[in-house]
Amino acid sequence: MNARENLTIAVAGGTGTLGGAVVDELRKRGHHVRVLSRRSAEHPVDLTTGEGLAGALADCDVAVDASNSTSPKRARATLVDGSRLLLAAEEKAGVGHHVAVSIVGCEKVPIGYYRTKVAQERVVESGPVDWTTVRATQFHELVAGVLAPLARSGLHPLPKARLQTVASAEVARAVADVAERPALRGRVEVAGPEIEDLRDLALQWRAAHRSRVLPLPVMLPGPVGRALRAGALTTDRPDVRGTLTFGQWLTAGR
Ligand SMILES: NC(=O)c1ccc[n+]([C@@H]2O[C@H](COP(=O)([O-])OP(=O)(O)OC[C@H]3O[C@@H](n4cnc5c(N)ncnc54)[C@H](OP(=O)(O)O)[C@@H]3O)[C@@H](O)[C@H]2O)c1
């Protein structure tokens, strides 16, 4: 099916890491894009209350939900209850396609945030608007964003964890491709080019930053540690494989 042109697309979370890249990508392709977030000057909305959604979604063809909250107190309200409010407002506004963003393997790692993502997926799949879910692996930006502040303490505590990190810009291109096409009522998986251990990613980060921070191997006990060591957050056969490795992304100075 050919990509549709000149769409009006709302991007919830359009000021975030992924959302910002999705907004740039869709604008480059000539679509009319609305940035929805609490701090958006154009379309301030709050997903936890539904405030602003009706006006922001009027006349939109597609809504991309790239919002996020990792706070234990707010994640459910933003991602699960927020999806319900967003979908109800989309239905009222006549939005034809809801594009959700989730995480490869989230059902296999029993931590609170991933449970919330699974619950969010279910709300979307049983919701009133045709949908596609783009599942992505961890972004290069996330790993760098965790390692940088830890380095200031002088130590990198590092569990063994097989990851397949990907540049958020490459995920954004996949999300934009999905948004331009009819809803699949199914998932598209996007993953990075290589499966690497977190300890090797940290080694590359230290080299790129000429950092003398000490690596501290730690053991993550229980089912979470086992799942991460076994590569539960990776996939051998993604639908879309990014091309930029973590090392190349670091060299490019991100
Ligand atoms: N980060 C990763 O490695 C990764 C990997 C795979 C999948 N994902 C998924 O990708 C999506 C985006 O993640 P991200 O890391 O790009 O997020 P992020 O950078 O933390 O951005 C979150 C966005 O959500 C908005 N937001 C938060 N609370 C809101 C509320 N109550 N109402 C309206 N907007 C709200 C924020 O803007 P305001 O603060 O202005 O409201 C911001 O634009 C999530 O679904 C996440 O699970 C992330």
Helix content: 25-40%
Order of helices and strands: EHEEHEHEHEHEEHEEHEHEH
Share of residues in strands = 15-25%
Bound molecules: NADP nicotinamide-adenine-dinucleotide phosphate
Overall pLDDT, averaged? 97
Counting DSSP E segments of at least 2 residues, the number of strands comes to 12
Tally of separate helices = 9
Given helix and strand content, the structural type is alpha/beta
What value does the Rg take, in angstroms? 18 Å
Which structural traits does this protein have?
254 residues, 8-stranded parallel beta sheet, two-stranded parallel ribbon, 9 helices, binds NADP nicotinamide-adenine-dinucleotide phosphate
Describe this structure in words.
This protein has 254 residues and is α/β, with parallel strands linked by helices. Helix content is 39%, strand content 19%. An eight-stranded parallel beta sheet has the order 3-2-1-4-5-6-9-12, sandwiched between helices. It is globular and about 55 Å long. The protein binds NADP nicotinamide-adenine-dinucleotide phosphate. NADP nicotinamide-adenine-dinucleotide phosphate binds at residues 12-13, 15-19, 37-39, 45-48, 66-69, 78, 101, 103, 117, 136, 138-139, 142. The site of NADP nicotinamide-adenine-dinucleotide phosphate has 26 residues, from α1 and β5.
